[in-house]
Amino acid sequence: MMQALVTDRLEDAIEDRGVAVIVTTHNYARFLGDAIDSVLAQSVPPVEVLVVDDGSTDDPAAVLARYPGVRLLAIPQQGIAAARNAALAQVSARFVVFLDADDVLAHTALESGLACMAANPGAGFVYGAHRLVDADLKPLGGPSICRVQPNGWHSLLRGNVVQMHAAVIFDRAKLLAVGGYEATIPRCEDYDLFLRMARRFLVACHPAVVADYRLHGQNMSSDAAEMLAWHLKVLDRNRPDPADVAGLRAWRDGQRHWKKAFTNFVWTERGAPSATRWAQRRKMMRVAPRLTPAAALRQIVLRVLPDPVVDLVRRVRKPKVTPRLGDFDFGDLARLKPVDPNFGYGRGNPVDRYYIERFLDTHRKDVKGRVLEVGTPGYSQIYDSGITRQDVLNVNDDPGTTIRGDFEDEATLPADTFDCVIFTQALQYAYRPEVALRNLYRTLKPGGVLLATLPAITPVDNIEWQWYWAFAPKVANRLFEETFGPGNFTLEVHGNVFAATCFLQGLAVEDVGPRWLDPADPAYPVNITVRALKRTETGLKPTEND
């Protein structure tokens, strides 16, 4: 069922203005043909291909003469960020991929990216794996990918998990919403963009190899000292607010990561002439005088170790792209007990409460007049829009209780009394939920509103209460239709497979953030919310038969 849904979304994405590929070049005409060939060989063809020439002197137009369907945008040299922005203004596709002229796309790059977009509605961008290749496009190793965590912005603060720009497919509208690339940044402009987009939008990744990064000795990233300086400047531009403790922690982790990565880089063999390598090392000593000697010592130790030991260390450190059957990395979720056995209260706000509180906030105007709430008056107090009298229903004589009894017992609740009943996460305790709903209908005044939430995929509390049910959306719909009548209620389903997993493990909203909780997948409902109205004149009356 879900595979069919993703396939439908993929087909919709292809049909909905498709993908534009923008190839940027500055004196890379010798590589440009390879890049264009890889774009035109896609399993899902792009709807637009545009080459933007940023002031080249090697005549890229001569290369494009072989490709009549490819447009050329020639501009005076402004830098890669400004060139990409200029090209972005010339395309209209819904999605866009940026490919540097010295790199190439894999055959299924666009198809894989669109499938990931379809599986993650609302994403600002998604990305896949890439490979390093030599100047002749011969692989220099296996696929590389660093997976993004649920909080994509924090992941990117810690390091550029995307790694290669051509591995990304952007939602063009969201890219424009953040202002595109920052043209004043000569290096790391892609990292800056990723950070700004991840701060506002969902980021997701997939394991398919989508691009090859060509190493030819003239790559911009080969100047390690300069790259470190600009990575740190980009981090400074994207520093979290002082109140964001977790964000600041990630930001500091990122500073340490980049310093360690680039000081180590200058001591590894990359094929550059010896004089160039030593110039880089001297320059790095000025940028990071404390870490550079430590990096040199680390590389010396690795070089004196036997090759099998070095290979073992590198295999352990290198992330796997696609786990083999039986070799899936469950990480912190490889446990027989949940992270928090108390629904997530021990860590913060439980996942189901995110949906419940958003629902009540949406309908806070209904919380007025005489209001009844089950258990405590907590939500009534938060969403009060003019309460004249507050009642609390409990089976026990707890503090604040005004009505003691069981909501399955008709004698417990007075008829035609309440303007609003807040009934959150309680129907599962009724062995006969249809009877409980009839009693709630009966206790409402004509025109009164029931705000109810029901658990779907959920942990079960069997300690203090008799928990009988979890509800599927169709069951909930039928219960309310039989009680309140067709058209007298609005039912919504909240959650997705990720949210359900987090809730079962007792993770909190603060662990993941709303961007991963907002997308709704009816196949994995975490919570069901219902606003039901007791009509003043017409409407189905509940039957008296149990």
SS-based structural class? alpha/beta
| Biggest sheet record | 8 strands, mixed
Estimated share of beta-strand residues: 15-25%
CATH architect. name of the domain at 351-533: 3-Layer(aba) Sandwich
GO molecular function: glycosyltransferase activity
Domain Glycosyltransferase 2-like: 21-127
EC number: 2.4.-.-
Keywords: Glycosyltransferase, Transferase
Tell me about this structure.
The chain is α/β, with parallel strands linked by helices and 546 residues long. It has a domain of 183 residues: Vaccinia Virus protein VP39 (Rossmann fold, 3-Layer(aba) Sandwich), CATH 3.40.50. It contains 19 helices and 15 strands. The strands form 2 sheets. The protein has an 8-stranded mixed beta sheet with strand order 3-2-1-4-7-6-8-5, with helices on both faces. A 7-stranded mixed beta sheet has the order 11-10-9-12-13-15-14, with helices on both faces. Strand 1, helix 2 and strand 2 form a beta-alpha-beta unit.
Q: What layout of secondary structure does this protein have?
A:
Blueprint: H1 2-15, E1 19-25, H2 29-40, E2 48-54, H3 60-64, E3 71-75, H4 80-88, E4 95-100, E5 104-105, H5 109-119, E6 123-133, H6 152-158, E7 168-171, H7 172-177, H8 189-200, E8 202-214, H9 224-237, H10 245-265, H11 274-287, H12 291-304, H13 307-317, H14 351-362, E9 369-374, H15 378-382, E10 387-394, E11 403-404, E12 418-424, H16 433-443, E13 444-455, H17 473-484, E14 489-494, H18 497-505, H19 509-512, E15 527-533
Helix pairs in contact: 1-5, 6-8, 6-10, 9-10, 9-11, 10-12, 16-17
Pfam families: Glycos_transf_2 (PF00535), Methyltransf_11 (PF08241)
Protein name: Glycosyltransferase
Domain Glycosyltransferase 2-like: 21-127
